[in-house]
Amino acid sequence: MQMYDLIQKTRRKESLSDAEIRYIVNGFTQGEIPDYMMSAWLMAVCCQGLTTDETVTLTLAMRDSGECLDLSDIGAITVDKHSTGGIGDKTTLLIAPIVASCGGFVPKMSGRGLGFTGGTIDKLESISGFSVERPVPEFIRQVREIGCAVISQSGNLTPADKKIYALRNLTATVDSIPLICSSIMSKKLALGADCILLDVKYGNGAFMKTPESASELAQAMVNVGNLAGKTCRAVITDMNAPLGHAVGNALEVQEVIRILQRKEENALSELALELSAQMLELSGKGDLQTCRKLTSEALHSGKALEKFADMIEAQGGDASVTEHPERLPKSNRKMAFKAEASGYIAEIQSEQIGLACLELGAGKTASRPEIDYGAGVVFRHDIGDYVPAGEVLGMIYGASDALCEQAEQRLRRAVRISESKSEPIPLIHGIIG
Ligand code: URA
Question: For atom 3 of ligand 1, which residue has the closest CA?
């Protein structure tokens, strides 16, 4: 088999056989196919796409490139969740304890921040002592005993995805539906949960800009999951504004705790409750109405807050933050940002908010590899709210006045105020599977 011929076939939109796709994945993972050839093939996939059968084979070949976990020791139906990423998306921190406190089992491997989007693992590491690196047997024991664990991706899972993703990042080949689908689903299948709920985001802060393209990606992922023998569903959700009010690691954990303490309700809590109910339904805990009652009761009774504390303690973290969120890290400086005109908040450009937080130190950059866990932004208003000129729209947290001022300029450009009130965008656009 010659890689040259396979690149040409994909470029001409001719289907590759299973053996040809496995040859590409294994050859590249083992270093036999050089980066320049793989880049050419990835670009051909970006331009011409792959068939459903090719996407399934690519996903399974990537899954099989490393270790696949056996979760049978948990002794119950397990349910995983994946979000395609966005700004202020901290749903995992709510969903894991809510589902676990309703009797579900959530084994979760999460990622770090990527580009302008934050990562669940960085958020958890803002809790003093919290360990995201657990040996697999301990991870499985924790899920069996308390119902949930959130750790970083084990080094042995899907080495093919690690190599291919790094190359895609450098070669403008990230936003391709078969490539995103195979990247995400190979990791989900290698983790091995019985049921998978996918939260596929669209909007100005997501990979997919429209509900149509998000639905296409969701359908591809559900197809692959089902063909691999999993119970799989996708929820298409809005990411045209940050999810919830806080963006930035410790600030997001604080928001999660305030929701679990029943001191705050917003779009984030609404979405987390719905996704949790969908996960419980997938894992056979009753019909959707019953599961919605279970999740609401878990949140309002305080059981989910207790479960979050149990998870933090099991992973070596300071669980007292669930009672005293003020003990989480704080940045040195804070600054208000204000409305420049009176009117209705019409738009909050999520990507710009993510970039402002990255510049404040909430994520790593090539020149600044340290995270300032207290840095970020907390909004006081939502899209559709009326604000008079000069109203405080939110607070900026950073290490210095200069960093806060730089963020303030970006935020001013990111928030659009209009004379007329626009129709609210529904949080959930649709469900597939
Ligand atoms: N997240 C992933 O894990 N892979 C992609 O390709 C895109 C988002």
Answer: 184
